[in-house]
Amino acid sequence: MHARAIVEVSDAPEEAIVEYARSEAIDLIVLGTHGRTGMSHALIGSVAERIVRTAPCPVLTVRHPEHEFVFSESVKSEAAMILLKNILVATDFSEPSDAALAYGRELARTFKARLLVLNVTDNIMARAYGGDGFVFSDPALQQDVEAAARKQANALLSDEDREQLSAQTVILTSNTPAFTIVDYAAANDVDLIVMGTHGRGAVAHLLMGSVAERVVRTAPCPVLTVRHPEHEFVLPDALVAVAKA
């Protein structure tokens, strides 16, 4: 391992970090995040979230002192170990989510962790209520949507995933996917969340934000975000395997 410290002066730290990562072909950016919310976040944003949106490689964000997966071997020792037991991949069945699954699968294999694949389906019934409480949607439609999501999620996992990684799929229904992902991670002792990010920018980001960035801001554990098809540290064979699964 070769370590070195780099100091740069910039009025836009996120741009400097991203540009350095791109110029040096960095494989992974690791950041702490303050988890800002409310008006301060809306006005100035978060450096960590801006890097997640634009980084040329995967980004690991850690919000200390929440749930960690790096532990000291002893109080007096500086040695540390990584312990991953439960890895959660949140998917919307997009190409970035496929890349995130490749990372989650390989990390689960490396650390002998359990792999959980979560999809949050849209709550059609909740959106269907009018101002007078009248329902415009057939309940069977919600069941069909959830069944289709369950079938698609199950197709992402192989028999090998289920046997070797104790992999399982989870389908939840909500109109607030970021909060649902975070709540599930907190309730199920998840050590790492892996997500794909679409890297929205400008007006689209200002209006509706990004699920991945909201998860980064509030997650109880570290979050690994992957913006496919940028610079990867999981070998192409693993990504191809996901496409064929």
Please tag this protein with its features.
single chain; 245 residues; alpha/beta; Rossmann fold; 7-stranded mixed β-sheet; two-stranded antiparallel ribbon; 9 strands; disordered C terminus
Summarize this, please?
The protein has helices at residues 13-23, 38-44, 47-54, 95-111, 124-128, 139-156, 159-164, 177-187, 202-208, 211-218, 236-244; strands spanning 29-32, 59-62, 70-72, 80-82, 86-90, 114-121, 168-173, 192-196, 223-226. It has 245 residues and is an alpha/beta fold. The relative contact order is 0.19.
| Number of helical regions | 11
Biggest sheet, strands in spatial order? Answer: 1-2-9-8-5-6-7
- In the CATH scheme, the class would be Alpha Beta
> Fraction of residues in helices?
40-55%
Any guess at the CATH architecture?
3-Layer(aba) Sandwich
**CATH superfamily (homologous) name:** HUPs
Provide the number of structural domains.
1
The shape is globular
Query: Could you tell me the number of beta strands?
Result: 9
Strand count, sense and barrel status of the largest sheet are: 7 strands, mixed
Task: List the helices and strands in order.
Answer: HEHHEEEEHEHHHEHEHHEH
What does this 3D model show about the protein?
The chain has helices at residues 13-23, 38-44, 47-54, 95-111, 124-128, 139-156, 159-164, 177-187, 202-208, 211-218, 236-244; strands at 29-32, 59-62, 70-72, 80-82, 86-90, 114-121, 168-173, 192-196, 223-226. The chain has 245 residues and is α/β, with parallel strands linked by helices. The chain has a single domain (69-244), classed as Rossmann fold (3-Layer(aba) Sandwich), CATH 3.40.50. The strands form two sheets. Strands 1-2-9-8-5-6-7 form a seven-stranded mixed sheet, with helices on both faces. A two-stranded antiparallel sheet has the order 3-4. The protein is globular.
